[in-house]
Design brief:
Elements: H1 2-25, E1 31-37, E2 39-41, E3 54-57, E4 64-67, E5 73-80, E6 82-89, E7 96-103, E8 110-111, E9 117-119, E10 125-134, E11 137-145, E12 154-161, E13 173-174, E14 178-180, E15 185-190, H2 191-196, E16 204-212, E17 219-221, E18 226-228, E19 240-243
Length: about 240
């Protein structure tokens, strides 16, 4: 009997452990952490405290969010695998969104390697904009408050459109951020630049300018198909216009 029982017991043990091992292998993770960090600035280039910025995973229920520590680092725990938009926000800062974050590749946590530099919202008000055309170019004069100078840099951005309702959300063309160290700030736009932007000679173009920040927190939003500029100062003057040379 012993010679018969022993093989049976051994076989049962092998089957039990084999089943247990297979069961363990079928456990596939569906959640993991997303981690990253930020660098924070004022509306210029001065570094600020990196803590207490809230980072949210848009579309999660309940909402998954975390706050940055003194080093600007954050960890979003137990995020289901998928593709997400992260929203970064803090009082005094324009919100920033990082779209298309693919999470869970090969069932692993996601570490965001790109560190965004985010700035505070602009305190620069645009009080006047004039436009004049000569020598096949348009000259813009943008006056700000406070006035820009070498000791107190101000930052401005302008938007162009054939619509009188041109704005930061209704535009054909947007400029880079310019450093204004003299008041009014002067910017020349050549005919070539205007034609390259999609305008035609003889066309009336409207321009509107805003105060902005050096780190503008700008991002592309696929829903309106526009670039979003969260740090603009909305206090500005009505659009002015000129005719493309």
């Amino acid at each position: 009997m012993k010679s018969i029982l022993f093989p049976l017991v051994t076989l049962a043990s092998v089957l039990f452990f084999s089943c247990s091992k297979n069961d363990d292998e079928t456990i596939v993770p569906t959640k993991a952490a997303i981690s990253g960090s930020v660098i924070l600035y004022d509306e210029g280039t001065t570094l600020l405290d990196k803590s207490n910025m809230t980072v949210k995973v848009i579309g999660t229920t309940p909402l998954i969010q975390a706050t940055t520590n003194a080093e600007g680092k954050f960890i979003l725990p137990e995020v289901p695998f998928g593709t997400y938009t992260l929203e970064y926000s803090k009082a005094g800062f324009g919100s920033y969104k990082k779209t298309g974050v693919v999470h869970g590749t090969n069932g692993q946590p996601t570490a965001i390697s790109t560190i965004p530099s985010l700035g505070q919202q602009s305190t620069t008000t645009v009080t006047d904009v004039t436009a004049a055309v000569s020598n096949n170019q348009a000259k813009l004069l943008i006056t700000t408050y406070p006035a820009g100078n070498t000791a107190n840099r101000r930052y401005v951005r302008y938007f162009l459109s054939t619509s009188p309702q041109v704005s930061a959300t209704n535009y054909t063309y947007f400029s880079a951020v310019f450093v204004a160290q003299i008041n009014p700030f002067e910017k020349t736009i050549t005919q070539t630049e205007l034609l390259s932007a999609g305008f035609a000679s003889g066309q009336q173009v409207y321009v509107r300018a805003y105060g902005d920040s050096f780190w503008d927190n700008a991002y592309d939003d696929s829903t309106p198909g526009k670039r979003i500029f969260p740090n603009l100062n909305g206090t500005t003057v009505a659009a002015t216009s000129f005719v493309v040379p």
